[in-house]
Amino acid sequence: MAKQEFNPKRFLQLFGTIGLSSFFIFSTSTIASQLYSNTFAEKKLGMGASVASVSLENLTKEEAATLLQGKIEKWRSSSEVVLIHNEERKNLPLDAWQFQPEESIQAGRSQPLKTELNENLVKEALQTFSDPNLEKVLDMPLLLNHLKQSGSQLTEGTIEVQLGDFLSTAIEDDIVVSEIALPLKGEYRLLTDYVAGLNGFKINGGESFSLRQALEEVKMTPQISPDLNALAEGIHRAALTTNFSIVERHTSRELHVEDMLGYEVSMDDEERDLILHNPNTGTYELSLVVVDQVLSVSFVGVPFPYTYKTIVEKKTFEPKTIVQFSKELSSFNSISLKEEGREGYLAAVYRISYDNGGRKTDKVKLYEDFYPPKHRIEERGYPLAADPVEGIPPEAGDLPPALPWYPPYPYPENPENPETPADPETGDEQEPGSRKDGKLPDDSDEDPSKRREVTK
């Protein structure tokens, strides 16, 4: 069979026919699919579509709305919004947020979740705080806008809102929230300079105050002195009637003035310090002045939700008497006082909170101070034994405890000569009938006048 010769023209015609047919089939199916989708199927959201950081790409509007509604329900079940004012915390009902997921969806764009806030629920939550004037001092439009934005992000967990950050700039000047007057006894040469340097010192919200560091900030050097202790005590007493925390405080070993029990502060220039912590969002200012031997200390700032008072519960420990014997005193009844004793104390300091109606709301123990008693020390002469009566052995109560009764000879500690006792202190042999051998002396061996003299 003859081999057929290749025909290029025929090959090109066949290849072109097949290519055009394939293109026609592909184009027809693609166009038909798009035409059907555009005519009958719902459009889907394109790239970049999101609401409140929730991606909605390749979802229909109905699917996107369903997804957002699920995120909203999850946020309501797993989140809380807490309003904080000083020590008080109040939960804001999550029903205050009214979300609009359908209106928030737009193709190809990232949108926040459209939200409305129920102002009445917010105001009702503010009225649960103990401060009746809280709503008046707040910038309400700013607070409401912040709350609306916080909810629209659908951030799960606890959202804390510090109301102190939304205080109106139009509120009145800060007031004195705590004030004490401490009488001064004696001369205080450094105190005036300390007071002038720290007057007006600010303690910012959420920060701690160190007396040593504060003096260094105003270019002053704390020196061990009654002046430094008096300054620390005044600031400490004023802080007790606030909600400030006492972070560090020291006392001396002895209480020199009983009125200082529970309030004393002892400082030095290296280790001992007075440190307070301001738990509030607002800033408080120290006001100090010395007039007519009286140190006045006050805290100036936003009023507290409660009124604070302190009480000191005291327990007293009586001193004991320690007796020391001396050869220089003639008898046990002779007494020489070496050291006067003093009482010891245990002081528990409590802070009590009262609301605006004067009702007691809380009682918290802040700390305890202990000052051990100082025992009384006195010297007495050695007690003398009474003369025994012939033929009657001494009773246990006849001799003082300090003079033990030695048994009659033969003395067990002198085996070489049992008939002669030995001195229990020196080991020397003693004459029979002496006081130390334990044998009653004979009247003929002792001058009765001397015995009577001793008995007297």
Automatic annotation (TrEMBL):
Top-level taxon in the UniProt lineage: Bacteria
Transmembrane segments annotated in the record for this chain: 12-36
Keyword Cell inner membrane in record: no
KW Cell membrane (keyword) present: no
Domain G5: 305-383
Compositional bias per record (Pro residues), positions renumbered to this chain: 401-415
InterPro entries: G5_dom (IPR011098)
Segments for region (Disordered): 385-456
Listed Basic and acidic residues bias regions: 432-456
Keyword list, A-Z: Membrane, Signal, Transmembrane, Transmembrane helix
Protein name: G5 domain-containing protein
Organism: Fictibacillus iocasae
Source species taxonomy: Bacteria, Bacillati, Bacillota, Bacilli, Bacillales
